[in-house]
Design a protein that fits this description.
139 residues, alpha+beta, Alpha-Beta Plaits, four-stranded antiparallel beta sheet, 4 strands, 40% helix, binds 2'-deoxyadenosine-5'-diphosphate, binds magnesium ion
C-alpha cells in the first residue's frame, strides 16, 4: 500500500550554490508537507551505505565522494502519490534531459551533481527515511 511519503536530499552542489531555500519553496508550493528535515553531512561511510545499490556502477566512487563533500538537507515529505509526484517535480537524473521547470532542470549542474535525490519506490522511501531520522524526529 502506498505510504504517501517520500524521502529527499538537497545535495551538496545545490546547497553550495545557494539554491537550498528556492528548492524547499518549490517542494512546499508543489503541495508536499515536511514531516522531517535536517541540515547535516554524510560521512564517507554513510554515503557508501546509502548508495550501496550502486556499488558496482562505474560512478560509485565519484558519487560517494561528492555526496560526502559538504552539507545536505535531508527530508521526509508527504503528499498523495508522493514518490511518483516528487520524481516528476525533480525531473530526469541528467538535467540536460530534465523537463523544463523541474528542480534538476533549474538547479542541477550535471548528471552527477544533480541537486536533489528522490526515492524511487514506497519501500525505498521508508528505508531511506529511517536511515536519516529517528522516530522522534518525524512529525
Ligand atoms: P536518480 O537519482 O535519478 O534516482 P540513479 O538512482 O540512477 O538516479 O543514480 C543515483 C545517483 O547517482 C544520481 O542521482 C547521480 C549519480 N549518477 C547516476 N548515473 C550517473 C552517471 N552516469 N554518471 C555520474 N553519476 C551518475
Ligand atoms: Mg535513484
Amino acid at each position: 500500500m502506498a505510504t504517501n511519503r517520500t524521502f529527499t536530499m538537497i545535495k551538496p552542489d545545490a546547497v553550495e550554490n545557494g539554491h537550498m531555500g528556492k528548492i524547499i519553496d518549490m517542494i512546499i508550493q508543489a503541495g508536499f508537507d515536511i514531516k522531517a528535515m535536517k541540515y547535516t553531512r554524510l560521512s564517507e561511510d554513510k554515503a557508501k551505505e546509502f548508495y550501496a545499490v550502486h556499488a558496482e556502477r562505474p560512478f560509485y566512487g565519484e558519487l560517494v565522494e561528492y555526496m560526502s563533500s559538504g552539507p545536505i538537507v535531508a527530508a521526509i515529505l508527504e503528499k498523495e502519490n508522493a514518490v511518483e509526484d516528487f520524481r516528476k517535480l525533480i525531473g530526469a537524473t541528467d538535467p540536460a534531459e530534465a523537463a523544463e521547470g523541474t528542480i534538476r532542470a533549474k538547479y542541477a549542474e550535471n548528471k552527477g551533481r544533480n541537486a536533489v535525490h528522490g526515492s524511487d519506490s514506497d519501500e525505498n522511501a521508508e528505508i531511506e527515511g529511517k536511515f536519516h531520522f529517528a522516530a522522534n524526529e518525524i512529525f
